[in-house]
Each structure stands twice: as C-alpha cells, then as structure tokens.
Design brief:
Blueprint (H helix, E strand, L loop, with lengths): L5 H24 L6 E4 L5 E4 L14 H5 L6 H17 L4
Antiparallel strand pairs: 1-2
Length: 94
C-alpha cells in the first residue's frame, strides 16, 4: 500500500500492529470450555464444567480458573506459556 505522507504510513502500521495485538489478546482470553447441562439425581439439570481436572497433570483446576472456562491448572498454564514463549523465540526445537 503506497502512502504519499510518511506519517500516514506510520499511522497505518501502528493501527495494524494494535489491531493484531488486540485480536491475539481476544483469542487468548476466550474460554476453552463452556458449561454443559448435567442431569441431577432428582431428575433436574444443572450446569457443570465438562473438564474439571487439568488436561496436563490431572489435578483439580482451581475454581477461579474454572469460572474463566480454563482447562489447565495455574501451574501447568504457566509452564505452557513459558514453553510457548521459548518456541516463539528459538523455534520449535526448544
């Protein structure tokens, strides 16, 4: 895209960068699971999380993380983000 004014080009690049960062943040904050209807013994239904134990370590997910629709406990999420950051910096061999 050609711009006659360098400031217009700079603004376009800044806007593009900001939009990409916002979209990435939205994707990362989107719930990984949603509550589903579960039958109760009395014949009624209630909403519950399909995944209550961490997909990585099988330990119970903290209630605060479940409320966000997460599928990993805090410790495993921190480890995953560290691994993801290393892969981004050094390639997939890290």
């Amino acid at each position: 895209m050609g711009f006659s004014d360098p400031l217009d080009q700079a603004q376009y690049l800044a806007d593009s960068h900001n939009e990409a960062a916002i979209e990435q943040h939205r994707r990362m904050s989107k719930p990984e699971q949603e509550r589903v209807a579960v039958a109760k013994p009395d014949g009624g239904e209630t909403l519950d999380w399909p995944i209550k134990d961490c997909v990585d370590c099988d330990e119970p997910i903290e209630p605060q993380r479940l409320e966000l629709g997460r599928i990993r406990c805090m410790a495993c999420q921190v480890a995953k983000e560290g691994d993801d950051a290393r892969r981004a910096r050094f390639g997939k061999r890290a």
